[in-house]
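Chapter review: from sequence to fold.
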Amino acid sequence: MMPSLGIIEGYYGPPWSVADRRNVIGFLAPHGYRFFIYAPKADAFLRKRWREPHPAEDHAELHALSQFCRARGVRFGVGLSPFEIYRSFDDDAQAALAGKLKHLDEIGLDTLAILFDDMRGDLPELARTQARIVEWAAERTVAKHIIVCPSYYTDDPILDRFFGQRPEGYLEELGSLLDPAIDFFWTGEEVCSREYSPGHLSRVSEQMKRKPFLWDNYPVNDGQRMSQHLHVRAFTGRPAAIGPHLAAHAVNPALQPTLSCIPALTLVESYAKGDAYEYGAAFRHAADAVAGPELAKLLYQDVLALQDVGLGNLGKGADRLRKRYTDIDHPAAREIIAWLDGAYRFKDEDIA
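The token string follows.
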């Protein structure tokens, strides 16, 4: 069983252009990708400056993107991170949130995601306050589909290290308080999970009291370490057997939109073929479809250097790669050259 597949643009770092989003949506929609959620961490008007409306030009672009999606049978959503609103959900905060929801509704939303990720979480009444906020927002938006990202969206203890110790029974309490129709984002056993199993997802379903809406952090490559690598390999560790245990499967893409389409296509093949799936063959099929056979052949030959060695360790290999890709007139090749030039190198200010 193949779950509903989609893209959540939820990375840190430089966001895609309007043309990038349209190209990715237009390419993946015929292959079964049925939703797109706009939530780049660099959009301050969805995070630290969430109380402010988007500038008119940005608002118009998002409205046009919503229409573009719907014309292709793709549901459009926005991920709003009302930064630490749960510290004081008073009259002022409610008025600000109501205004923001009205502003976002004008874009044309099928899905509204309320994101509490990457914020302080060791606070009293966290689950109860967050549930109140989500239910309050759900009653005031035109979006028919609501998703919440809990503050603790993975078993990974790194969240406790950075954002405080998770409250005992947090996930269970939040799940018991929220309407069963509201979905939960979940990244798995780790922030960037290597694999997913039916057993793990079943256990999380019991905690949440609903199936998890998977936020899959592959092929995302933000951060100081991951931005040194191009994640182009096919998906592994996502067996078709997990499909019945998911509400949906959202892919958080890499900073490189065209190259992201390669692993995105292999996920479709993984679900479709089940036990017959071969990740090497899937990569070649997807690379051919995205880049054409000649460029795909080069990518297959260079996948070790691109994905495993890393930009800082390439040495003279960087010159070799530059010679191979400089004169190729294709966006995938241009993304590789930009990566070699340091265009995607992560900066401290990319953490908003």
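Two observations follow directly from the output. The mean pLDDT is 96. The beta strands are 5-9, 33-38, 75-80, 111-115, 145-149, 183-186, 212-216, 248-251.
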